[in-house]
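FAQ

Q: What does a record look like?
A: Structure on top, sequence underneath. For example:
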């Protein structure tokens, strides 16, 4: 792992992503889902600025975090469901 990379644990799987991007950008770059709506539809970041709330995930055990507003930290845990 380089200084410009961070280790992100997404749904229990360790991934390496650029250290300076948002969680939303990391999930999009890895082609991973964010969550599903109550009707089962896949959700993702739509606005990219925290207004739509479609990119909500659990980050380090805290639910309902807007992935587009949180910068990746090494060792961060993200749960999409």
């Amino acid at each position: 792992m380089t200084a410009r990379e961070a280790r992100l644990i997404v749904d229990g799987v360790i991934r390496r992503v650029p250290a300076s991007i948002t969680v939303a950008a990391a999930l999009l770059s890895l082609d991973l889902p964010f969550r599903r709506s109550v009707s089962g539809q896949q959700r993702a970041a739509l606005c990219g600025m925290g207004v739509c709330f479609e990119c909500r995930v659990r980050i380090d055990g805290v639910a309902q975090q807007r992935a587009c507003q949180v910068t990746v930290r090494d060792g961060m845990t993200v749960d999409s469901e």
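Q: Is there anything notable about this one?
A: The CA atoms of residues 28 and 44 lie 8 Å apart.
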